[in-house]
Amino acid sequence: MDITCRPDPLQFTLLPLFGRIFNVMVYATLLTMICVGLLVVAAMHDLAARTIPNALPAFLAGGGFLLHLGAGNLAAALATAAMVCSLAAFCWFRGWLGGGDVKLLGAAALAVPVVSMTSFILDVGVAGGLLALLYLLARRLVPAASVTVPVSLAARVWRAECWRIRRGGPLPYGLAIAAGGVLTLLQGGPT
Predict the structure, then answer these.
(1) pTM value?
(2) Hey, is 190 helix, strand or coil?
(3) In CA terms, which of 124, 143, 145, 156 is 20 to 30 Å from 27?
(4) Which residues contact 80 (CB under 8 A, 6 or more apart)?
(5) Which pLDDT belongs to residue 25?
(6) What's the burial of 121, exposed, middle or buried (CB within 10 Å: 0-12/13-18/19+)?
(7) Are 84 and 55 in contact (CB under 8 A)?
């Protein structure tokens, strides 16, 4: 009687599949966290300098490209991001958004899941409305500038922001875009 130890056929067929799924999930989670970090950096830069460096939306778009490439819905993601970017470009043309905001909005639209695009746009709109309300209320509450020159970066940013608020300067809408993108990305769901 021949007693041979035969391996379970399911062991060889399912283990590589689970390994691939696990790797895809790890890479997708890592890319999502990188995209969240890029959105936070863009928001902070927009708050401090009212500019968004071109590299941030470029890397964010690259991360979104890789996320959707891995999920297999790249064409749909590119189409929805192009529509969002086109609408944002129209807003830029009318003077309602800055050029950096347009780039960040288009890149963030590429990074969020296609099925969550409506939620993303709604989150950005609500965050923008809250930001505008906060700035309107802050105009009455922000004290006059002091004569001492601040030393720390945070103190200098605060002083510049107080000056912008008092004179009614433009909103750092990158904050609203980043808030909407972070909320949508952290909600999870299919990419």
Answers:
(1) 0.82
(2) coil
(3) 124
(4) 109, 114, 117
(5) 78
(6) middle
(7) no
Specify the number of domains making up the chain: 1
Closest CA to 60 of 80, 38, 40: 38
What is the tens place of the pLDDT at every residue in 27-44?
888 999 999 999 999 999
- CA distance to 115, 119, 126, 179, per residue, from 123 (Å): 14, 6, 5, 7
Q: Please indicate, yes or no, if residue 28 is contained in any of the structural domains.
A: yes
- Report the SS3 class of residue 1: coil
Return the SS3 of 163: helix
Predicted confidence (pLDDT) per residue in 107-148, tens digit: 999 999 999 999 999 999 999 999 999 988 888 887 776 677
Tell me whether residue 4 is in a domain: no
The verdict on residue 5 lying in a domain is no
Q: Find the domain containing 111 and state its range.
A: 10-187
Q: Could you tell me the CA-to-CA distances from 46 to 14, 50, 59 in Å, in that order?
A: 48, 4, 16
The answer to whether the beta carbons of residues 189 and 116 sit under 8 Å apart is: yes
Mark 76-111 as b/e (b = at least 16 C-beta within 10 Å): ebbebbeebbebbbebbeeeebbebbbbbbbbbbbb
Q: If DSSP codes are grouped into helix, strand and coil, which group holds residue 189?
A: coil
- Alpha-carbon distance of 105 to 83, in angstroms, equals 11
Using alpha carbons only, what angle is made at residue 142 by residues 170 and 172, rounded to the nearest 5 degrees?
A: 25
